[in-house]
């Protein structure tokens, strides 16, 4: 355990805008919008101030420590909210983020971008460069540059070191406890009980989150984000446009103000500042990428609570916009047909789209997925084999191919495909889950339990990870190497569970 617990958080996400009523009652609202207790012996709100962050070289926290906090934070998020596991969606959001980071002033800084499957409008940055964007915010954007402007803003907070360090000299919170507390604080308004638990954990550990948020941080993140946008070939004018639309929309929300507006207060001066800066860039037309349009369509279907209404939405777009946009609307109709098990309708739609756009991987993959979902495994495997030849570096297709191979009994081939996946894909819990399924079908229960343990750990379920390791250890015929690996992982999981328990 570190001598001093250093928690890296996004300032713009932890500080909530103060409602007028709270201001009149002298109640400070931070930590997910929850009012801090004002009774004696509780958190002293007068001590919320920015600590000495040290110099910009990162002397308070090493890259290795920040990485460890980030990974723990991400695991804790998985245990509290639904993180996207669709490889196509993940591939798009990560690629977009990497394009933006490459044009920042810290292109080598590690970032991991992901989508939170919540309809709430929000985006946030956590420790270690983990940046989350809610599905609801993606659906609210009208053009790709608006989504990029939000992501660029969050990147700006990270690269400009606006993330504060809350350190407790005695190191009273361990890494897993700190990460869980961060996640709970970020999710406080979505889960009030979780937010209150976070405050209680802070009190129990005698840790004070010292924050003094300044508007200058937000404005600087806007300026940096806009520069990143322009260098990345996105429209800088989308930032003030999106802010303006968000500000105008607040009158429709009443008390249920979106989390993004609470954590990123949009003021007239902020809009004016970003508008003025955007106007310094030459005007030009910007075209949305097909990946953005198709990802947005897929997210819309996955997040739909009324598929009939969503189908009407896509049907209304079939004769609007460009040829490509109309094709995306057909794709949306096809996805709904697939989700409602209308396989013949989906087959017809995706066959047409594949003929018209043979190089668009999402259309061809949807056609293969139709065969897989209709249990036509021979056809599915054949289609995925051709896809792999056509798109050899496309991991989302490989993940689906593995599923088809497992269902058709080609287990060893599935294992080989899994081992060939890139590092970013192996961050997804579905990777460990697929490995566990593969080794189960290979009749290797120890390996299956071992990888299922890693899946549960990635999902923030350390207790279940421990159970799976112990089941693996009970398997017959363990060799020395695997036995050693299991012992090491069991000790690691037990230590982490103990550290988390000691601080709650």
Labels describing this entry:
504 residues, mainly alpha, Serine Threonine Protein Phosphatase 5, Tetratricopeptide repeat, 3 domains, 3-stranded mixed beta sheet
Question: Can you give a write-up of this model?
Answer:
The protein is mainly α and 504 residues long. It folds into 3 domains: 5-278, no CATH class; 304-409, Serine Threonine Protein Phosphatase 5, Tetratricopeptide repeat (Alpha Horseshoe); 428-504, Alpha Horseshoe (Serine Threonine Protein Phosphatase 5, Tetratricopeptide repeat). 60% of the residues lie in helices and 5% in strands. The protein has 24 helices and 7 strands. It has helices at residues 11-14, 20-24, 63-80, 87-102, 135-140, 144-159, 175-186, 192-204, 215-231, 238-249, 259-263, 268-278, 290-303, 307-316, 323-339, 343-356, 361-373, 377-390, 395-407, 411-419, 429-441, 445-458, 462-473, 480-502; strands spanning 5-9, 29-30, 34-35, 112-116, 123-125, 130-134, 164-168. The chain has a 3-stranded mixed beta sheet, sandwiched between helices. A two-stranded antiparallel ribbon has the order 1-7. Strand 2 (29-30) and strand 3 form a beta hairpin.
């Amino acid at each position: 355990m570190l001598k001093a617990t250093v928690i890296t958080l996004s300032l713009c996400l932890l500080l909530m805008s103060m409602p007028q009523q709270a201001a009149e009652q002298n109640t400070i609202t931070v930590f997910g919008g929850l009012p801090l207790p004002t009774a004696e012996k509780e958190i002293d709100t007068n001590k919320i101030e920015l600590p000495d962050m040290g110099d910009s070289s990162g002397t308070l926290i090493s890259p290795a420590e920040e990485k460890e906090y980030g990974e723990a934070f991400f695991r804790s998020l998985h245990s509290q909210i639904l993180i996207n596991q669709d490889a196509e969606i993940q591939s798009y959001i990560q690629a977009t983020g990497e394009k933006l980071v490459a044009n920042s002033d810290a292109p080598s800084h590690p970032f991991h971008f992901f989508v939170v499957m919540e309809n709430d409008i929000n985006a946030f940055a956590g420790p270690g460069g983990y940046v989350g964007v809610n599905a609801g915010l993606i659906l609210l954007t009208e053009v790709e540059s608006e989504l990029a402007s939000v992501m660029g803003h969050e990147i700006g907070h990270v690269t400009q070191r606006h993330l504060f360090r809350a350190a407790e000299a005695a190191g009273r919170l361990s890494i897993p406890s700190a990460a869980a507390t961060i996640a709970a604080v970020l999710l406080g308004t979505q889960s009030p009980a979780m937010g209150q638990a976070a405050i209680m954990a802070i009190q129990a550990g005698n840790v004070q989150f010292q924050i003094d948020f300044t508007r200058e941080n937000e404005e600087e993140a806007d300026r940096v984000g806009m520069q990143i946008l322009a260098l990345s070939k996105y429209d800088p004018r989308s930032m003030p446009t999106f802010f303006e639309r968000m500000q105008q929309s607040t009158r429709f929300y009443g008390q249920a103000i979106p989390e993004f507006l609470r954590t990123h207060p949009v003021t007239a001066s902020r809009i004016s500042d970003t508008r003025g800066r955007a106007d310094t860039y030459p005007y030009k037309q910007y075209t949305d990428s097909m990946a953005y349009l198709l990802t947005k369509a897929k997210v819309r279907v996955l997040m739909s609570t009324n598929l009939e209404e969503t189908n009407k939405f896509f049907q209304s777009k079939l004769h609007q916009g460009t040829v490509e946009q109309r094709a995306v609307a057909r794709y949306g109709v096809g996805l709904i047909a697939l989700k409602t098990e209308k396989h013949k309708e989906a087959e017809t739609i995706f066959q047409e789209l594949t003929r018209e756009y043979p190089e668009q991987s999402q259309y061809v993959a949807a056609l293969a997925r139709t065969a897989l979902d209709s249990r036509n495994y021979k056809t599915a495997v054949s289609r995925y084999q051709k896809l792999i030849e056509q798109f050899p570096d496309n991991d989302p297709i490989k993940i689906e191919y593995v599923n088809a191979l497992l269902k058709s009994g080609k287990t060893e081939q599935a294992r080989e495909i899994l081992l060939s996946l890139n590092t970013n894909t192996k961050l997804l819990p579905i990777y460990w889950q697929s490995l566990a399924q593969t080794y189960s079908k290979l009749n290797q229960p120890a390996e299956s339990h071992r990888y299922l343990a890693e899946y549960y750990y990635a999902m923030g379920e350390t207790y279940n990870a421990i159970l799976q390791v112990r089941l693996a250890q009970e398997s017959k015929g363990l060799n020395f190497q695997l036995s050693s690996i299991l012992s090491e992982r069991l000790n690691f999981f037990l230590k982490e569970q103990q550290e988390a328990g000691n601080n709650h």
